[in-house]
Amino acid sequence: MALTPPIEPMLAEARRTLPRSRALPGGLAYEQKPDGYRALLFAEPDRAYLQSRNGADLTPAFPEIAVAGRSLPVPLVLDGELVVVHDGRLTFDDLQRRARRRGHGARQAADRPAHLIVFDIIDRAGEPLLDQSYRFRRSLLEGLLTDGVLAPPFALCPATTDRSVAEAWLAPAWGAVGMEGLVVKGLAQTYQPGRRGWLKIRARVTTEAVLAAVTGPVTHPSTLLLGRYTRTDGCGTLPAPRRSPVPRGR
């Protein structure tokens, strides 16, 4: 294949709201953003390499993805999100445990199998597709799934050009099953390694809670004990950027 690892994946810039319709070249496509690990799969018959976003080798931790990659009839370089599904939702904790396993431990993880939700293809049969439009690459990817070239543990990332559908994907119900939000792409965009050319919008959920206790100064807390109208209470550490002083009288 023409493309070889490591390759920097194309990245997304965070936004708080959906962009205007002409924010990216060619109009907008909206993809669901699963809660997982970004990964590039370099696959050809009898050989596969799974690369993390930062260039690390994930192949030993996810042997089922490597086996499926080696079984593909045509060399491909796929971009996607590694996920683990359990009880009908994506579970990031299970994915993290899988990522730490190697050798026999990784092979024995059949009770928590991984899947690669594929959202892009950047090389086919040794032909780089970096200069092709997203519309072209997406069509090619959909064809590989339709023709059965890609099958489980590979899955196609849901995508739409309908803004109303994209807005519905930001609903809390999708977050409950492990979808973080959306990635917005331009239909005419090429694939630019390492560049933040896409846009990412996280789903936001608000809820009421009773603040029972804090650790650290009340005006600059490090942990909060919250009581919520759910079956369990919550206690967690606040990241440093969120430990900003609390205004008096509020």
Automatic annotation (TrEMBL):
It comes from the Bacteria. Keywords: Ligase. It holds the Pfam family DNA_ligase_A_M. One of its GO terms (molecular function) is ligase activity. Residues 107-202 form the ATP-dependent DNA ligase family profile domain. InterPro entries: ATP-dep_DNA_ligase, DNA_ligase_ATP-dep_cent. Belongs to the ATP-dependent DNA ligase family. This is ATP-dependent DNA ligase.
